Amino acid sequence: MSLNAFRRQAYGLLNSSALVLPVRAAPARPSTSLRLSYFSTSTSNRQSTRPKNTFEDVTFEGLIKSDPQLAPYSTSKYRNAVSDERFEKAKSGLEARGFKVHVAKDKDDAFEKLKSLIPAGSTVNSAHSTTLEEIGYINYLMENNHPWNNIRGTILKEKDPAKQDELRRKLGTTVDYFLTSMSAITENGEMAHGDFSGTKVGGVAYGAGNVIVVSGSNKIVKDEAEAWNRIEQHCLPGVSAFSRKAYKMPNSYITHYEVLRQANPTTPGRIQVVLIKEALGY
Fold first, then answer.
1. Percentage of residues in the chain with pLDDT exceeding 70?
2. Which of 53, 84, 127, 255 lies most in the core, judged by the most C-beta atoms within 10 Å?
3. SS3 per-residue string spanning the chain
4. Cα separations in angstroms, 246 against 65, 206, 228
5. pTM of this prediction?
6. What pLDDT sits at residue 68?
């Protein structure tokens, strides 16, 4: 298999950004007056419109059932939501580092909060994220019953591999809103992630005007050392199982690794976090 073909097959596996790059000023955010009424920032007492997750077979639980190589990780501590005390530590740590945090009690709440954060008319793309699939966002985005410009859909409609790669590079990382998850969030507020393809590198570190991180509380770890351990010892086996199922590849690899230690003061508010009090994703 050629390197380009391998990269295309691996698009959207674990996701990451590689280096902390200089960040230019983010594109101006659309006025909040453009938001539709049903995208109100108040999400309490509202019945969720969250679509059903149709990717159950590639959740961590689903892959444990189908892949014997992942079975030993069924009791991994990184599959569990953390205590309220540790959750609050991570929230406070993120805020102290300049990241805006939105707390969600469950998947329904996370889905509604996420919708409320993206103004109408925005160009939107996402890295592959099991968390985004689990809360129903990916199905919602691809149904196109929303007021956004779905760049993910535009990219996937292009069937020529070389042209799709070009769209992914030029359009996918420079959207108004780039959505993703993280592999680990420390109690001190650092965020860490790694991936094979690098499709998340430009979007998170530099290209996108705004980044929204959506993460379950099972991603919370003590410090950066444990963040790397979680990624290498838990996330990578899970994504390798995904690779075997989806692409018939034996393993995935961590070719890019990034730690976000501080919100960039020149683009305040660019990176927001929806932190969910449930275990989600790898």
1. 83
2. 127
3. CCHHHHHHHCCCCCCCCCCCCCCCCCCCCCCHHHCCHHHCCCCCCCCCCCCCCCCHHHCHHHHHHHCHHHHHHCCCHHHCCCCHHHHHHHHHHHHHCCCEEEEECCHHHHHHHHHHHCCCCCEEEECCCHHHHHCCHHHHHHHCCCCCEEHHHHHHHCCCHHHHHHHHHHHHCCCCEEEECCCEEECCCCEEEEECCCCCHHHHHHHCCEEEEEEEHHHEECCHHHHHHHHHHHHHHHHHHHHHHHHCCCCCCCCEEEEECCCCCCCCCCEEEEEECCCCCC
4. 15, 29, 25
5. 0.83
6. 97
CB contact set of 220 (below 8 Å; sequence gap of 6+): 82, 86, 87, 90, 184, 185, 186, 187
CA nearest neighbour of 202 among 127, 136, 102: 127
Query: Bridge-partner residues for 150, per DSSP?
Result: 124
* pLDDT tens, residue by residue, 138-188: 999 999 999 999 999 999 999 999 999 999 999 999 999 999 999 999 999
Take residue 53 and report the two structure tokens written for it.
Answer: 């997750």
| 8 A C-beta contact, residue 239 and residue 69 | no
Quick one: tokens of 103? 């707390």
Instruction: Count CB-CB contacts under 10 A for residue 42.
Output: 9
The full set of domains in the chain, from first to last, is 3-19+54-276 (3.40.50.10420)
Burial (CB count within 10 angstroms: exposed 0-12, middle 13-18, buried 19+), residue 145:
exposed
**Which residue is associated with the tokens 């007056």?**
33
Say yes or no to pLDDT of 100 above 50: yes
Query: What is the arithmetic mean of pLDDT over 26-45?
Result: 39
pLDDT for residue 25 is more than 70: no
- Is 21:205 a contact under the CB 8 Å cutoff? yes
Task: Find the angle CA(213)-CA(64)-CA(225) to the nearest 5 degrees.
Answer: 50
